[in-house]
Amino acid sequence: MKKILLVDDSPLMRRVISDIINATKEYYVAYTATNGIEGLTILKEHEDIMAVFCDIIMPGMDGISLLRIAKEEGMKVPFIMCSSCNDTNNTIDALESGAVEFIKKPENIYNHSKYFDVRIYKALKAAEEVCIRGYVEPRVISTTPVQSVPVVEESKEIQPVLHAKKKNKSQNYHSKLVALVCSTGGPRALQYVIPKLPKNLAAPVLIVQHMPVGFTASLAARLDELSQISVKEAEDGERITNGVCYIARGGTHLSVASDIGVTKIKFDDSPPVVGLKPCGNIMYDSLHDVPYDEIVCVVLTGMGADGTKGIQELSKHKPIYVIAQDEKSSTVYGMPKAIYDVGLTDCVCDINQIAHEIVKKVGVL
Questions:
Q1: Which is the catalytic residue, given 8, 55, 306, 346?
Q2: 46 is known as an active-site residue
Q3: What span, in angstroms and rounded, lies between the C-alpha atoms of 217 and 235?
Q4: What predicted TM-score, i.e. pTM, was given to this entire model?
Q5: pLDDT, tens digit, for every residue of 266-297?
Q6: What is the distance in angstroms between the CA of the first residue and the CA of the last residue of the chain?
Q7: Which is higher by pLDDT, 108 or 46?
């Protein structure tokens, strides 16, 4: 059983989360702390901690400060952050600072749903993969938007690897749409991609990032501040236009509908798919009849295989081009691996090169 450090100022929350973790029979809470100061002391004294399960708002030293200090001091232990719905900005800060995952605390801890237990288990599994793979954050390359796509000499470390797929090269595509899906590690990965896209990108961008209600608006606002391209949380019924990134609203499936050549966002309130809402497969399924000549599918870091079935079905209806994040730069190499394993990837590359590949494929206005 792998040892977990639980840091939370609430005795009740520590007891409930400890019970959930210990019940997995794979992980157990070996150490507890009431704030970041105590947590840092324990981290320095014990090297057998697989992961830190940490609250964000605490007296003395908060969870984000603990996370940042641990990173600065070279501690490789992955952090899972736990937050209430009111802590959206702090949660985004934590994910940007390198947290592997975050989990929203239930409003009623005495009568929480089984989904909370499942989320904790999945987060621990993601943290364990990070430990096993020894994930190292990608080196940041300039976030200057790609205004053109000249041929440049790239290092072997980040050279895109092309995987040929039979396509009719004589086809002349005129309009394209980018559909991106990501999960664990996604908020940080998006910061390596979206700020590099130019404001005159010749395609709209749909993004499904697995997040609960209340968090995607903050994520969209943060990315919009960092980017030249416009980034917003998707709204039901709004028209999709080039040069705009639409992030699926947490707790709502994002789909697309077309009427007389006009493509609009359409919210889908169907049940979660394998616990996911929004779900990338639903987004891809809605693109079968959209009036775009080609769909550029992008799959970034994440647990599981969301997006693979949707892209497989989409390939039967529309010409597609699939870009997947490589293993080295993925926080969790689940979703990109799944799409690669079914043989649908056209390009596998480092996170720093994803934006370049998107612009090279769709162009600018």
A1: 306
A2: no
A3: 11
A4: 0.86
A5: 999 999 998 899 999 999 999 999 999 999 99
A6: 55
A7: 46
Higher-confidence residue of 214 and 51: namely: 51
Pairing of strands 27-33, 2-7: parallel
Cis preceding linkage at 11, omega within 30: no
DSSP 142-211: --------------GGGPPEE------TT-----EEEEEEE-TTHHHHHHHHGGGS-TTBSS-EEEEE--
Tell me the per-residue pLDDT of 142-174, one tens digit each, with 9 for 90 and over: 556 665 443 333 333 333 444 334 344 333 345
The one catalytic residue among 55, 93, 210, 268? 210
Structure tokens belonging to residue 363? 């162009």
Active-site residue flag, 210: yes
Residue 242 Rama label (left phi>0; alpha psi -120 to 50; beta)? beta
Structure tokens at 248: 């699926």
83, 183, 218, 286: which one is catalytic?
183
In terms of Cα–Cα distance, which of 123, 122, 60, 121 is closest to 95?
Answer: 123
* Rounded Cα–Cα distance for residues 77 and 45 (Å): 13
